[in-house]
Amino acid sequence: MTPTKHYxxxxxxxxxxxxxxxxFPTIADASTEIINLEAIMHLPKGTEHFLADLxxxxxxxxxxxxxxxxxxxxxxxxxxxNELRESEKKELCTLIYYPDRKLELVKAAEPDIDxxxxxxxxxxxxxxxxxxxxxxxxxxxxxxxxxxxxIIEELLHERPDDMNKAAYVNVIVDTIIETRRADDFxxxxxxxxxxxxxxxxxxxxxxxxxxxxAHIIMxxxxxxxxxxxxWGNHDILWMGASAGNRACICNVLRLSLRxxxxxxxEEGYGINLVPLAxxxxxxxxxxxxxxxxxxxxxxxxxxxxxxxxxxxxHKAITILQFKEEARIFSRRPEWGMQDRMLLGTIDQxxxxxxxxxxxxxxxxxxxPTVDPADPNKLTPEEELLMQKLTHSFxxxxxxxxxxxxxxxxxxxxxxxxxxxxxxxSVPLNDDGTLREVEVYGNNYVGKELFHQIGMVVRSxxxxxxxxxxxxxAIDYFLYLWCGKDSPLFNKSKMATFERYFLTDKEMYxxxxxxxxxxxxxxxxxxxxxxxxxxxxTNRHIINGHVPVHASKGENPIKANGKxxxxxxGFSEAYHSETGIAGYTLVYHSRGFQLVxxxxxxxxxxxxLRGTDIKSTTQIVEMSAHRMLVADTDKGDELxxxxxxxxxxxxxxxxxxxxxxxx
Length: 662
Known about the structure:
Blueprint: H1 11-21, H2 27-40, E1 48-51, H3 58-67, H4 71-80, H5 86-97, H6 99-109, H7 113-131, H8 137-143, H9 149-156, H10 163-178, H11 182-197, E2 200-203, H12 214-223, E3 227-230, H13 233-243, H14 246-258, H15 263-269, H16 274-284, H17 304-331, E4 346-347, E5 352-355, E6 358-361, H18 380-394, H19 397-409, E7 410-411, E8 413-416, E9 419-422, E10 437-439, E11 442-444, H20 446-459, H21 467-482, H22 496-501, H23 514-518, H24 522-531, E12 540-543, E13 557-558, E14 563-565, H25 572-578, E15 583-588, E16 591-597, H26 603-609, E17 615-622, H27 633-653
Helix pairs in contact: 1-27, 2-27, 4-5, 5-6, 7-11, 13-14, 13-21, 14-17, 16-17, 20-21
C-alpha cells in the first residue's frame, strides 16, 4: 500500500485549497475527479492539425479542414479495407465532407434510398465510433448536436459484436429512417466525425490577402471548436488597417487591387471603394497605368473597362502608400528606414530615380500628385480620400470582430507539446546568435522579443493605453510588415517601389535575413528552441511564410528534422512557382505526418465526382509507443491538478478544511 504523503500546508496554500474546495466540496467529489483525470491521461493523444498561409483561399481551406488533411480518408481505409470498393470509400468520404450537398445527389440517383440510408448510417456510426475512441464520454457528449445527442451517444457506445444489442441498434436506425429524419441524422453524424477527427487546429499565420475569402475563413474559425493562431505578416497588416494605420490601409487596398480581389473588401467587410475609384479616374484618367495591371488568376473574369479602372485605382493607392509610409518613417527615425522614402529620389525631368548617387531608369514617370519640392505631402484630394478610407476600416464592426478573434486565439508564437510555432522567423545575427531588436526604446531577443511585440500590438486596441504609446503601437504595425528586423519580414527591404517603377531587376532583390540562411543548421535551431524554453527530447520548430519549391527539389524538413516548413501554398499565385499547393501537418498519437497537396479544383467538383485534394503523405517522425494524453502539455496540467486535489484530500482528512455537505 502506498504510504500517505505528508503535506505542509501554509496559510497561502490553505487559501488556495479553500477556493478549490468550492468546486470539490467533499472527499467523494475530489476523489472522483482524481480518478477521472488519471483515466484521461491514459487516453491516446488528440490529433493536432497544422495549417499555414491560407491567403483567403476559403474553399481549399474548408476542404482541408473537412478532410483533416487526409486523416478521415485514412480512417475510412483502415476501417473498411477490402470491404468496400475504392469508389465506395471515395463516395463515403465525400459524404462526410459535404453531407447536405451530397445527399441531394444521392437521393436523385439512388433507386432504394431506405436501403442506402440503412447501410450508410451503420458505416458512419462505425467511423464515428473510431474517431471518438480517444476521448472521454463527456468530451464526446459536448461535441454532439442537441437534436440527436442521445441517439448518437447510444449508437457510439454499444458494442457492434454484442448480439443482445444488435436488434436494439437496428431498431434505432430503422426508426430514424421511418420518421424521415435520416438526412438530418446523417448530416449531424458527418459533422461529428469532422469535429472529432481533429482535437486542435493550429493556424500558423496569413489568413488574409490574395484570395477572395479571408472573411469566410474567419467566420469558419470563429465557429470552430478549438484553434489557435500565430500572427502572420498579412494578418498584422489587416490588424494595423483596423487600428487606423493609414499605410497599412493603403497596403491592404494595393494588394487587393493587385490581384483584382475586391470581394473581401466590398462584400466581406463593406469597405466603400467608390471614393478611391472616383479619385483614380479624376487623377489618372489619361494614364494607361501599365505597371499596375492586376495579376489575374485563371478563374477571374473581368471586362476591359473594369480592368482599366482597377489599374488606375491600383496606381492611386500605391502612390498614397509610399507617401503614408514616408510620413511614418520620418517620425520614427529609430527604425532606420528613411532610405525607403523613394518618391523623393525621382527626377521627373530626366525620368530616372537617383539612389545612392546612381541613376536608375524608370518605366514611367507620370506623378501628377507628387510635388518635387515636397514629394511626400498629400494633396487636399488625397487627404480627404485617406480620411474616408480610414473611417471605413475603423468603423467596420465585422472586421473588428475578426480582429478580436485573432487576438483572443493568438499571439506571435506558441509552444505546444514540445513544438515551437511561429509564422516566419526569429531575428538572428550572421553567426546564428539571437539578434537584439529594439521595441519602443528597449532591446529584446527571442521569446521576450516576441512577447513584447505582442504587448505593443494589443496596446493599439486598448482604450487605457497612454496616447503616445498607442500612437507608437499603431505606427509599429508598418514596421512589423516591412521592417528589416521584424520577425514577420526579416529582409533587407521590401522592394515594392522598385518592382513597379524601375527597369533594373537587380534592384528587385530582397536579401533574406540570417534566419532563412541558417535555418537548416541543427545547432541554430536548438539555440532558438532553448531561447523559447521548449522542453522535450523531440523538439521542433514549425513555421510557414516561405513557399517550399518542391518542383526544384527543396525539402520542407530541415535541420535534421528539427524544423518543418509548412507554407500551405493555398494561394493560386504560388502554384506555378512551387509546383504544388503546399503542405499541411498532422500530429496524431503515433507521430507526425507531413501532407503535400496538389491544387484543389473546387467543392462542386469534389461533390459531383468524388475528387479530393490529391495528397502525398510523408511520415516525418513516428513514436516508439502510442502517445497518450500523459505525454502532452495537457498531461502536465492534469498532473498538477491531481497533485492539488490530493493535497485537498489531505486537508479534508486531517481536519485542516471541513467538507461542505449540502
